[in-house]
Amino acid sequence: MNQHAKTPSKPVNDDIGEAVRLDLYRRQMVIRQAETRAYDLFLQNLVKGTSHLSLGQEAIAAGFAVAMKAGDTSFCTYRGHAHTLARGVPVEQVLGELMQRDNGLMRGKGGSMHLTSVEHGVMGSYAIIGAHLPIACGSAWRSQYQGTDEVSVVFFGDGTTNIGAFHESLNFAAVWKLPVVFVCENNLYMEYTPIKDVTAVEHPAADRASAYGLERIVIDGNDADAVYREAQKAYAKARAGDGPSMIECMTYRHSGHSRADPAKYRPEGELEEWLKKDPIKIYQERCRQFGISDAMMAKIDAEVLQVVDDATEACKASPSPPLELITTDVYADGGWAWRN
Amino acid sequence: MNQHAKTPSKPVNDDIGEAVRLDLYRRQMVIRQAETRAYDLFLQNLVKGTSHLSLGQEAIAAGFAVAMKAGDTSFCTYRGHAHTLARGVPVEQVLGELMQRDNGLMRGKGGSMHLTSVEHGVMGSYAIIGAHLPIACGSAWRSQYQGTDEVSVVFFGDGTTNIGAFHESLNFAAVWKLPVVFVCENNLYMEYTPIKDVTAVEHPAADRASAYGLERIVIDGNDADAVYREAQKAYAKARAGDGPSMIECMTYRHSGHSRADPAKYRPEGELEEWLKKDPIKIYQERCRQFGISDAMMAKIDAEVLQVVDDATEACKASPSPPLELITTDVYADGGWAWRN
Amino acid sequence: MAELTYRDAVSRAIAQEMARDNNVVFLGEDIGKAGGVFKATVGLYERFGPLRVRDTPISEQAILGAAMGAAMTGLKPIAEIMFSDFLAVCFDHIANEMAKNRYMSNGQLKCPLVVRTANGAGSRFGAQHSQSVENWAMMIPGLKVVAPSSPADVIGLFAAAVRDPDPVIFFEHKSLYGMKGEVPDGEILDTLGTAKILRPGKDATIIALALMVGRAMEAAERLKAEHGIDCEVIDVRSLVPLDTRCILGSVAKTHRLFTVEENPRLCGWGAEIASIVADESFYDLDGPIVRITTPHLPLPAADNLEDVVLPTVDRIVDTVKRSMA
Amino acid sequence: MAELTYRDAVSRAIAQEMARDNNVVFLGEDIGKAGGVFKATVGLYERFGPLRVRDTPISEQAILGAAMGAAMTGLKPIAEIMFSDFLAVCFDHIANEMAKNRYMSNGQLKCPLVVRTANGAGSRFGAQHSQSVENWAMMIPGLKVVAPSSPADVIGLFAAAVRDPDPVIFFEHKSLYGMKGEVPDGEILDTLGTAKILRPGKDATIIALALMVGRAMEAAERLKAEHGIDCEVIDVRSLVPLDTRCILGSVAKTHRLFTVEENPRLCGWGAEIASIVADESFYDLDGPIVRITTPHLPLPAADNLEDVVLPTVDRIVDTVKRSMA
Ligand SMILES: Cc1ncc(C[n+]2csc(CCOP(=O)(O)OP(=O)(O)O)c2C)c(N)n1
Ligand SMILES: Cc1ncc(C[n+]2csc(CCOP(=O)(O)OP(=O)(O)O)c2C)c(N)n1
Ligand SMILES: [Mg+2]
Ligand SMILES: [Mg+2]
To answer: Of the four listed, B295, C152, D105, D178, which is most buried by Cβ atoms within 10 Å?
Structure first.
C-alpha cells in the first residue's frame, strides 16, 4: 500500500462502503468513456451542433447523483451530459442526441445542450446561464408544498455566479427555506476567460454564501468521496426542512469549453497539474486503498466500454429524426397550432 | 444645552463646519417642504400620476449631495424627488413635473418617476427596480476611462438588493474598480412588504458587501452629518482610484410607498418611534449644539417656504405641455421618424 | 348575476381556481398580506393562507423560475408580474424557458402556469409603467396570450388559462380595473382561442383588444349614427391561439378591416392580423387594411399627452370615416 | 478591393471605428484576450489595449447598463451580447432603458451606443441559441435596428451605427460569419435606413433580411429561369429606420409582395411591412401579400430538421410560383 501514501485521506472506518464506492467508480467511468467517445465521434464529424464535455469533472456528477434518491430532481447546464449519464440515463440516448439521431434522448429536437429525462429526474439542461437556478427553486417549492422529502439539485459553473439569476435564486431559496442544493462546479474558467479576472472574490460561490445566510463550503471536486459526503449532508439538511445549501466544488475541465475550443488560453502547465489530480486516477487509488482490486475495476471498465461501444453502434445505425417531429410538442395537445 | 443630552454624538472638534452644516440643513428643509407641498397638492388633486415621497429620508439625499462636486453624477429611483432637489434642481421644475405642467423638469413627458437634470448631474430617475445600478457603473467607467476624478452615486432601496441587476453591478464595479458609490436607503419596506420577510440577511446591502470584496457599512441614515462623513470617505476612495463602496443607510419613510398607499400594513407604533428620529428634528438639535440659533434656522425655513410657495404658484399658472411634445425627442434628430 | 369590477373579477377568478384545485398556488410581490398594489388580490391570503399565497422578494426571475419549476413538477402556479413592463426583467424565462421547454424536451416537460400582469396606459405613470406589450408574448412560439376586456371575460378566460396545460400570459388592463360589468353567478369557464363579435355590422370590421374594445364600440356607434357606417366590432380576447376563423369570416362579410391597437405600431398584434388577412382574404378586401395604433414612441406621462397618444374614439371614427369615403 | 469574410468584416469594422474615435470602447464576454467566441473580434485587444477592449463577467445587464451609462456621459460604447437569444436576460435595458431615456428626459439624455449580437440559425445549436429576434428590437420605439447580409454591408452599416447618436441593435448572422465578399479598401461608411434593391424585377417584390437575402436571390434566379417570373429582390438591411419608400416603390412597380423571414411567424418584421403595404399600397396590389417565414415554433436542433424549418430556396420558389399562378 506504500505507493498510495499521497492519497488525501485514509479513514479507518469506511463510511462509504464498497457498494457505494463501486457505484461511484462506475458512474465516473461511464461519464469518462461516454464523453471520450463523444469527442472521438466529433473528430469523425458525427457529432452535430455543439457539445460541452465534463472530462475531468466526473467526480462531481457521480458524487451528487449517487447520493440522490428516486424523486430527487437534477437541473443541469449545456455541460450536462455528465449529470444526465450519472442519473442512469442510457449512454445510447445521450450519444444519440449529440449525434442528432432519432434514438436521441429528445430525438434530436433539443440537442446536446438540453438533455432531459424526466423519467430519471433530469428535469432539463439549460443553455442560458443562470436560468435554471430559479427553476430548481420551483421544483423544491413543489416538494415543500406537497410535503415530500425530495430534493432539487442544480449544477452550474463558476461563471454563472456573476449573473443576476444566481443572486435572486439564492436569496429566494434561503428565505423560503427550500430543499434545493446549489452546486457550483468551479473549473476556473467561464468560456475562455479565467473566472478570477471577472469576479470580486476568490471563491465565486462560497465567498458569497454568507450573503444568503448560508455556510461557506468549498470542497475538492475531483474526489468523488468528498463530493458524495457533502452531497449527503446537504440533502439530509434539505430533507429535514432546514433549507438550501451551496457547495463550491473545485475542479478543472480537461478539454476546451465546447467542441469548437482548443483551449489555447490556458497557461502552460496548468492542464498537466490538473491531470495529476484526475478524478478517475484519484478514485482508482482510493478503491485500491479500500481493497477493491484492479481486476474488479478493469471488469467495470470493460463493461462500460461494451455499453459505450454498443451505444455507438446503435447511434450510427439510427436514422435522423423524421421531419414530422418539427411540428410536434409545441403545445400540450402535441401540436403547434397557434390559430384555428 | 442639557435638554439635548440625547443627541447621538457631540464632537469637540467640528469637522463639518458651519457653512456645510447650514447647507445640509437647508437642503433637508427644501426636500421636507417641497415634498410636504407635493402631498398637499396631491390632496388637492393637482399631482397627476404617481409620486413617491422621501419624507423621513431627507438626511440621506442631503448628505450625499452636499458631499458631491460638480461633475459627479447621481442616479435615482422613482423615489428621486429628494435626490433631485438635493442637487439644486429648482423646486418649481420638480413640482411642475409632478403636476405634469409645461414648466416641469421634463415638461411633463417623463413624469415624477423619471426626474432628470443633466445640468445638475442628475442623470435620470429610474422606475424599474435595479436598472440604474449598472448604468451608474457605466458613468463611472467613463470617468475612469477619461481620467477624471468624478464619482457616480446611485441610490436605491432595501428591496432592490434582491434583484439580479444589483448583484451584477456590485461585482462589475468591484472587478473594474469603478468610482461608483452604491447607496442603499433601507427604509424597512419594499412597497408594502417588510424587507425582513423576503431577505436572507438582516442588512440586505451591508451583509452582502463581502460578496463583492467590499467593506460592511451601515450608518444612521437619519443623521445628515453621519451621512455626509460617510459620503466624503466613499467619494475620496473612489476619486483615489480605490474603487466602489456600498453604504447602507437605516431610515424610514413617514408616508406610504406612493401616493396611492395609506401604509396600513405597518405595525402600530412603528411610525411614532421613527418620528422621534425624524432627520429634521435630529438636525435641528445638532445645529443648536454647534451654535446655530433657532432664529437662523427659522430664517432658512422661511426662505425655503417662500421658494416652495413661489414654485407652487408658478406651477399652478403653468399650462399643460403642448401636444407637439408627443413626437419630439424619440431620436437624437429631435423627432420620432422610424421610416422615410 | 352581480355587478363586479374588473379588479374584483381578478380576485374572484383566482379564488375560484384555488378553491377548485389544491395544486393552484399563487406568488408575487405584495400580493399576499397587502392584497396587491392594484388591490386585485385582496382576501386571497386570508382565505388560502401563506402556503398558497406567497409574497416574494423583488426578484422577477426567481418568481417566474419558481413558477416554472413548480409547474414542471406538478403544481399549477399563478405568478404575478406587477406591471407588464417588468416582463423585460424576466424575459428570458418568458421567451426562452417556459415557452420552449416542452418542445426542446420532445414533450417530456410540461409547463402549466399563468403569468398575470397589469398592462397598458391611462394612469399617467410614464414610459416605464404604461406599455401595452401583448406582442412581447405573442411573438414567442410556445406561449398562449390572453387579454380580457370585461369582468366576465376576466373570470372565464382566467379559469381557462389556469386549467390550460400550457404557459399562458394573462394581460389585465390597468385602466380597466375600475370597470364594472355584469358577471354570472357560480363557476365561470370560458375558452381560450375564441374571439367575440361584440357588435355585428356589414360595412367594415374593427378588431380591438382590452381597453381599446370599449373605444372601438363607442366609435362604431358613432360611425353608425353620424356617418351611416355599420361596423362589426370584434374583441380578439386571445392572441394565441388566434381565432382567425372569426376574423376572416367577418372580413369576408364586411370586406374592410381596421385594427385598434394600444401598442406602439411596429410589430403589434394588428400587424400580424393584417398580414394574415392580406394573404388569406385578399380577394375579399374592398379597400386598404388600416391600423389605428399608438404612434411608435415611448409613452409620455402628462395626462393631456397620454390622453391623445392612445387611439381615441375620435381618431377611430375619423380614420374609419376617411378610409371608407 | 479585397475579399473578406463577414466575420473579419466585423473586426475590421470595429477597428475602423475605434481607430477613428478614442471615445469608442468595446466590452463583452470573451471578446478581448480570446478574440470572441465567433472569432469576430480577433486582434482588437492587442491593437487597442485592455482599457478599450474589456472582457466582462457573465453579466449581461451589467454589460448593457455600463454601455448605457458610458454613452450617456460621453463615450460611444460597443457592447457584445454573445448570442441574440441572450437579449432576453438584459431585455429591460434594451426595451425600457436605452430606448426610452432620451424621450423620458425630454431630450436631456443621449444614448449613442451599439449592441452587436450573433443572431439566427444554422449551427444546430437548438432553440436557445438559434433564434432570429430582430423583431424583439424592432417593436421597441426608440431603437434603431440593423441586420447586414454581406461583408461590405457589415462594415458600412456598423460604421454608421457607431456614428449614429441613437442606440442601435446590430444583428450579425451566425451562419454568415464564414461568408466571403468583396470589400472596398479604405474607410467604409454606409447609411442607416436604406434598403437595397439587389435584383431588379417586374413581376413581384421579394423582401428579405440577413441570411434570407442569399436565398431570396437564388430563388429569384430560379423563378426567372424555371418559371419566367421576374422578381425584384430587396435587402431591407435596416428595420428601423425603415426604407418604406424603396419598398412601396417596388410594390408600385411589381404589384406583388413576398417577405422571406427567418423569424417565427407571429409579429415578425414582415408582418409590419405587410401591414404598411396593405394600407398604403393596397390599390397597387394585384394579389395577396405572402409571408414566407419559419413556422411559429421553437427551433429544433437536428441538422435535417433545422435545414427545412427555415425558409429554403425551394420553399420560396414554390410559394411564389403557386401564388403567382
Ligand atoms: C446569459 C448567457 N450569457 C452567456 C452565455 C454564453 N456562455 C455559455 S457557457 C459560458 C461560460 C459559462 O461558464 P461557467 O458558468 O463557469 O460554466 P462552465 O462552462 O465552465 O461549465 C458562457 C459565457 C450563455 N449561454 N448565457
Ligand atoms: C423590476 C421591478 N419590480 C417591481 C417594481 C414595483 N416596485 C416599485 S417600487 C417597489 C419597492 C421598492 O422597494 P425599495 O427598493 O425598498 O425602495 P423604496 O420604495 O422603499 O424606496 C416595487 C416592488 C418595479 N418598479 N420594478
Ligand atoms: Mg467554469
Ligand atoms: Mg424600501
So the answer is: D105
Contact of C60 with A171, CB cutoff 8 Å: no
DSSP per residue over A232-297, as a string? HHHHHHHHTT---EEEEEE---SS-SSTT---TTSPTTHHHHHHHT-HHHHHHHHHHHTT--HHHH
Per the CB < 8 A criterion, the answer to whether C172 and C155 are in contact is no
Neighbours of C282 (CB within 10 A): 18
Fold assignment, C2-183: Rossmann fold (3.40.50)
3-state secondary structure of A182: strand
Q: How far apart are CA A55 and CA A289, in angstroms?
A: 24
Q: Please name the residue whose Cα sits nearest to atom 9 of ligand 2.
A: B191
Chain C residues in contact with B321 by the CB 8 A cut-off are 300, 302, 304-305
Q: State the smallest CA–CA distance between residue D74 and chain C in angstroms.
A: 23
Decide: C86 in ligand 2 pocket, CB within 6 A: yes
Q: What is the CATH number of domain B18-255+267-327?
A: 3.40.50.970
| Distance, CA of B216 to CA of B234 (rounded, Å) | 12
Question: How many Å apart are CA A124 and CA A108, to the nearest integer?
Answer: 14
**Choice among D17, D29, D129, D262 that is catalytic:** D129
ipTM above threshold 0.95:
yes
User: Measured between alpha carbons, how far is B218 from B185 in angstroms, rounded to an integer?
Assistant: 10
The second-level CATH assignment, the architecture, of C196-324 is: 3-Layer(aba) Sandwich (3.40)
CA of B20 vs chain C CAs: smallest distance (Å): 36
Radius of gyration of chain B (CA): 20
Domain extent listing, chain A: 18-255+267-327
pLDDT in tens, chain D (325 residues): 899 999 999 999 999 999 999 999 999 999 999 999 999 999 999 999 999 999 999 999 999 999 999 999 999 999 999 999 999 999 999 999 999 999 999 999 999 999 999 999 999 999 999 999 999 999 999 999 999 999 999 999 999 999 999 999 999 999 999 999 999 999 999 999 999 999 999 999 999 999 999 999 999 999 999 999 999 999 999 999 999 999 999 999 999 999 999 999 999 999 999 999 999 999 999 999 999 999 999 999 999 999 999 999 999 999 999 999 9
| Known catalytic residue at C232 | no
Which residue among D92, D141, D165 sits closest to B128, beta carbon to beta carbon? Answer: D92
How far is the centre of ligand 4, averaged over its atoms, from the C-alpha of B61 (Å)? 15
**Catalytic-labelled residue, pool C17, C29, C60, C261:** C60
Nearest C-alpha neighbor of B130 from the set D88, D92, D95, A128: D92
CA distance A198 to B246: 19
In sequence order, the β-bridge partners of residue A219 are: A249
Using the mean position of ligand 4's atoms as its centre, give its distance from the Cα of residue B165 in Å. 16
Per CB-CB distance under 8 Å, the chain C contacts of B334 are none
Enumerate the domain spans of chain D: 2-183, 196-324
Same fold, C2-183 and C196-324: yes
Grid-cell match 434603431, residue found: D144
